[in-house]
Known about the structure:
Blueprint: E1 12-21, E2 24-34, E3 39-43, H1 50-58, E4 65-70, E5 73-74, E6 88-91, H2 103-109, H3 118-130, H4 132-136, H5 147-159, E7 165-169, H6 177-193, E8 196-201, H7 204-210, E9 213-218, E10 221-227, H8 228-232, H9 235-240
Parallel strand pairs: 3-8, 3-9, 6-7, 7-8
Antiparallel strand pairs: 1-2, 1-4, 4-5, 9-10
Helix pairs in contact: 2-5
Amino acid sequence: MKVTGADTVQRLSVEDLSVHYGGVRAVGSVGFTVEPGESVGIIGANGAGKTSTLKALMGLVPRSAGRIRLGEHDLTRVKARDMVRHGIGYVPEGRHVFPGLPVEKNLLLGAYSRPWDKDTHRQLEEVYALFPVLREMRERLAGALSGGQQQMLAIGRALMTRPRLLVLDEPSMGLSPKLVGSILDVLRKLREEGLSLLLVEQNATLTFGVTSHCIVMENGEIAMSGTSAQLSHDPRVREVYLGL
């Protein structure tokens, strides 16, 4: 099964990214990389700047400064709607599925940047293989799905773009531990396929379980970074983010 464009994965480079809302700095000079096939997590408390960092990366909020590159392509001035054409799939916080459309049409809309042809339907079958419950509910309105099913739908819709990099914002929000485990299993499978992942989460346990490297943000800045294994054993991280 190949639901991604992982065979053409490229390096993401973010340099000196800054975001201001009015006169208030939300993110200040943040920089990091996601190497081909690497999975990177960003953790931090509410208001740490995690989501603002992702939204600025995707062009959903204005950047005060910074440069973004994917492989040889400079994406700094690329509009949000065109990021998918450069191989970045985005799963937003809150899922944002189309509630009045059936599951299958939600998924097909994820392939809007390509012609709907045999390849599109083959991709659809691969997403259904990854999320069998979506196949069972393909004719049901997305608004009638549970929170966990909507999260699966949001991930499946992003995978319909055949991304080189999958960006996820708080995928575990509002989900039961069992469903969080299911999402974790899917992200691990995608990682094993070689897809690059950038994951923002408050759930540090989930983040450490699926990523190879992690960034800790505080007050709009990077406070710590390292391998997920290293940070998961750091006394301060264990106390603040793991409750140990």
